[in-house]
Design a protein that fits this description.
20% strand, alpha+beta, Immunoglobulin-like, ten-stranded mixed beta sheet, single chain
């Protein structure tokens, strides 16, 4: 009897402990709605492919039992699944542990941060808090509590379309040519000597005149006659002498052109003449190239004095050297120089296209690369670039440009192979680095792409555009805005939306001439963010008319959450 009483007392004591534990946990479960949550942002957002959340939790006074441990887990629930954020463990004042302590008398305000990878299914989702309270060996699951909606995924709409840069050709349809010859005169003479007419450079000029006349791809542009006198003697005499030399030399070249049956010689503006009475510039050039004794002294005289008469006097005073000057330098300055200017007219566009497609071996590398700009189809362009690779295998541009076409065909692996070959042929080439970066970006290697774009600085505006995409993907929106600059593309507008510059974004979208569905969709997003429902409905209607797939996108786009139940919205997306 006594033993039975002892057992009963023990059972009652154990039951009391259990009831006491349950009472503490159940009370906390019942009053859990008194906990206040402030979620930032109010609607969850995806940035840099992550969903970040900040929750400020206000636990009221006299709520948290001194002997209880609570594990709180934010969970994002969506159709077809859920994803838990990292858990946070709290404990009462009497619990032995290293978790955050919540005082019973005062309560506590706690700030929680966490992140999870973004998934497309999360566009319509609920963020709820799930808590499990424990006191000793007893555990109680609290009721889940919704604290926010999710997920605005506008940042994920960035178009991952990096831009390539072509290896430019240096094609010139018109290539200027010149042919020169000199007629030398005796001292104080303007008579053209027979011996000068037989000089090699004059004979070459005559032959050139005949050759140009016979070549239908060459066209005369003019003849320049420059007559000179050497810088010795009186200046007024030299002026007259140089003028006479211009007359005699012009007469000679016109006669030769007439013999070659060139009608151009008769045109008034075909000939241009220049007279230099004292050729000090030519004198200085010949002196520098000579081995004349005291030449440095003579050159110093030229630098010290600008007056022609003073110069001549000082040079004559250097008697030993002046004798050599008279023999070696001055005779070469008594001359008239002919410069015949000719344009070499290249092949027509039609000729280039035909040869590039049918007989590329007839073209040089510049002609071949230029020909690719004359055809429209990607297949034809690729054919020409493949010919360039074969014929000019040491030129990086054929490989780079073939890679660019392959990239546009979405043959990324083949494009990469060509870019890598171009990189080997032209190490550290900024154009090639940009294109390799584009490959890495579409392959999802954002960090590697950013490094390559950094090495492509200065290659063109395409590099900044590509860096703008990288910055959006990294959630560095202000940096993206700077990279996109004056660009009015969809990505540039998106970056401004994400950076809160709605007026700028709208200006860019209005200036965009592509008429693409996404232009209107982003205008609708601007409308939603600025509470302009007319802007939302007008542009969303246009967007889905151009691309019906955007109906499904809009249905789950939390940018439009405020109008989900609006009849106009429903009519547009159904």
């Amino acid at each position: 009897m006594k033993r039975s009483k002892v057992i009963s007392l023990a059972s009652l004591a154990l039951a009391g402990i259990v009831l006491s534990s349950c009472a503490g946990l159940n009370k906390m479960k019942k009053e859990a709605s008194n906990i206040k949550y402030q979620v930032t942002p109010e609607v969850l957002e995806a940035h840099a492919d992550m969903v970040d959340v900040k929750v400020t939790v206000n636990i009221p006074a006299k709520y948290f039992n001194k002997n209880v441990v609570v594990v709180a887990t934010p969970v994002l629930k969506y159709e077809g699944g859920e994803k838990a954020f990292p858990s946070k463990t709290l404990q009462g004042e009497k619990v032995q542990g290293n978790n955050t302590v919540v005082p019973f008398e005062t309560g506590k305000t706690i700030t929680y941060t966490g992140k999870i990878p973004y998934e497309q299914a999360m566009r319509i989702s609920d963020l709820e808090v799930r808590m499990v309270g424990s006191k000793g060996e007893k555990s109680v699951d609290f009721d889940p509590y919704k604290i926010a909606d999710g997920v605005i995924a506008t940042a994920t709409m960035v178009q991952n379309t990096p831009r390539n840069i072509v290896g430019k050709d240096a094609f010139q349809r018109i290539i200027p040519e010149t042919q020169e010859a000199d007629l030398h005169y005796l001292i104080n003479s303007s008579q053209v000597r027979w011996s000068e007419m037989k000089a090699e450079d004059v004979k070459a000029l005559k032959a050139y005149l005949d050759a140009v006349k016979a070549d239908e791809n060459k066209e005369y542009k003019g003849v320049e006659v420059s007559a000179y006198a050497s810088p010795d003697g009186k200046q007024d005499w030299n002026e007259k002498l140089a003028g006479k030399r211009e007359v005699s030399s012009s007469k000679y070249i016109k006669k030769e052109m007439k013999k070659a049956k060139m009608q151009e010689y008769a045109a008034e503006d075909f000939f241009k003449s220049k007279v230099t009475p004292e050729d000090w510039e030519g004198f200085q050039k010949l002196m520098k190239a000579s081995n004349i004794q005291d030449k440095e002294l003579i050159l110093r005289v030229l630098s010290m004095y600008s007056d022609p008469e003073v110069r001549e006097k000082e040079i004559r005073n250097i008697s030993a050297a002046f004798d050599d000057v008279k023999k070696e330098v001055l005779p070469k300055l008594r001359r008239s120089k002919f410069t015949v200017n000719v344009d070499l007219i290249g092949k027509t566009d039609a000729q280039l296209k035909d040869l590039a497609m049918n007989n590329p071996a007839e073209l040089n590398v510049e002609e071949l690369l230029f020909s690719a700009t004359l055809v429209d189809s990607a297949d034809d362009k690729l054919k020409i670039y493949e010919a360039a690779k074969k014929q000019f295998s040491n030129d990086w541009r054929g490989f780079n440009d073939a890679g660019m076409i392959l990239f546009g065909m979405n043959k990324v692996a083949d494009a990469k192979s060509n870019f890598e070959k171009a990189d080997k042929l032209s190490a550290n080439n900024a154009v090639v680095k940009n294109n390799l970066g584009a490959v890495e970006l579409v392959n999802g290697n954002v960090a590697e792409a950013e490094v390559l774009f950094g090495a492509a600085t200065g290659a063109g505006k395409e590099v900044n555009y590509n860096l703008g995409i990288v910055s959006v993907k990294k959630a560095e929106y202000n940096t993206a805005v700077k990279h996109f600059g004056e660009c009015n593309g969809v990505n540039a507008a998106l970056a401004n939306i994400l950076d809160g510059k709605y007026n700028v974004a709208l200006d860019k979208l209005n200036a965009n001439t592509s008429d693409a569905a996404m232009v209107y969709y982003l205008k609708a997003v601007v409308g939603a963010r600025t509470d302009n429902n007319n802007l939302v409905f007008t542009n969303l209607e246009t967007a889905v008319a151009k691309d019906a797939a955007l109906k499904a996108t809009a249905k789950t786009d939390m940018e439009f959450a405020k109008v989900f139940e609006d009849a106009k919205f429903k009519a547009i997306v159904e």
